[in-house]
Amino acid sequence: MLTSRKSISVFIVAIIVIFCSLFLFACEKSDPSTVNTVPVMPDTTEGQQILFTVTFNSNGGSSVEAQSLPVGSLVQRPKDPTKDNYTFLGWYADSFLARK
Length: 100
What we know:
The protein is of the alpha+beta class. It is 25% helix and 8% strand. The chain has one helix spanning 2-26; strands at residues 51-54, 67-70.
């Protein structure tokens, strides 16, 4: 009787290990640098300058004007937004405020 309980326990543990390993192999690894990104496909009409529009999210602060820039140019730092009882700490590249 003791061996049957032991073999049942070993069988249950083996099933759990197999089940967990299936979940681990099914998980897709994501590249954190590509999360929430959208590929930009410019209009390639001949003879026209390609412009990109850069927008800023001030998270409820004063509005910040968007910038339309030609390909290869640098974005100019906009005027810092204001919001009552808040201190502006800088611009971030992501919505989680993790990458300046």
